[in-house]
Amino acid sequence: MTRVTLGDRLVGKQLVFFDCDGVLLDSNGVKLAAVDYALAHYSQKLRDRCKESFRLNFGRPRLWHFEVFQQLIAPVGPDAEHFLATCISRYEDYLRTHYSAAPLVAGAQQLLAQLAEGNVVCAVVSGGKEEEIIQALRVSGIDRYMVRVIGSPTSKTAAIRALLDQYGCDASQALFLGDAIADAEAAITCKVPFIFVSGHALVGRSALSANWPADYRAGEVPDLQPDNPVSQFSARCSRVKEDFLQ
């Protein structure tokens, strides 16, 4: 039997959706640092609570995150009135300086080039702001491989459904590469196969699959190198099992 590689799994697909942070770009650490910067005038204990929430809910829109931070911090006085606007502005200031410098995840350039040669349509589906993602992908040189970049405020589920409809693609002929609980939830809702890119993820396999349907299975790779073997796991299966070509 021959092991199934990431390249094998994607060959012949019509549509491939990529999350951005932690999947295409090694930028999850930048986002965590941006949260720390945005909340710098609060205590380390409060910042750590917020970063833990951010880690577990990574991939959701920033307004969602900062509304949760507001509940966790419970600011009073002038801070309470301007909390969201001030903190989101600081968060975005940090990203303007650091986000586009994030390196590509290993294998990203090679995999995207192979998919382009095979006429596979690629798109980014992210919880980040579209203009930030487009700029970062342009700097990294991979923007030319993407037909669309869809970010906040459009939900990932809505973005996937819109692209499936636009390209007349059945969900089984698409695939979503993500690294967060929000990515897996969108894939399951849209009935699109999912591969967990785990190398830079802020959550582990067990957290990712904790609320999955019992019979749902996903693939896993550490990064985007096309020759990576794809392992399978599910909510019931704590051990990873490699895929094989029969």
Automatic annotation (TrEMBL):
<comment type="pathway">
    <text>Organic acid metabolism; glycolate biosynthesis; glycolate from 2-phosphoglycolate: step 1/1.</text>
</comment>
<keyword id="KW-0119">Carbohydrate metabolism</keyword>
<dbReference type="GO" id="GO:0046872">
    <property type="term" value="F:metal ion binding"/>
</dbReference>
<dbReference type="InterPro" id="IPR041492">
    <property type="entry name" value="HAD_2"/>
</dbReference>
<dbReference type="InterPro" id="IPR036412">
    <property type="entry name" value="HAD-like_sf"/>
</dbReference>
<dbReference type="Pfam" id="PF13419">
    <property type="entry name" value="HAD_2"/>
</dbReference>
<protein>
    <recommendedName>
        <fullName>phosphoglycolate phosphatase</fullName>
        <ecNumber>3.1.3.18</ecNumber>
    </recommendedName>
</protein>
<dbReference type="GO" id="GO:0008967">
    <property type="term" value="F:phosphoglycolate phosphatase activity"/>
</dbReference>
<dbReference type="InterPro" id="IPR050155">
    <property type="entry name" value="HAD-like_hydrolase_sf"/>
</dbReference>
<dbReference type="InterPro" id="IPR023214">
    <property type="entry name" value="HAD_sf"/>
</dbReference>
<keyword id="KW-0479">Metal-binding</keyword>
<keyword id="KW-0378">Hydrolase</keyword>
<dbReference type="GO" id="GO:0006281">
    <property type="term" value="P:DNA repair"/>
</dbReference>
<comment type="similarity">
    <text>Belongs to the HAD-like hydrolase superfamily. CbbY/CbbZ/Gph/YieH family.</text>
</comment>
<dbReference type="GO" id="GO:0005829">
    <property type="term" value="C:cytosol"/>
</dbReference>
<dbReference type="InterPro" id="IPR023198">
    <property type="entry name" value="PGP-like_dom2"/>
</dbReference>
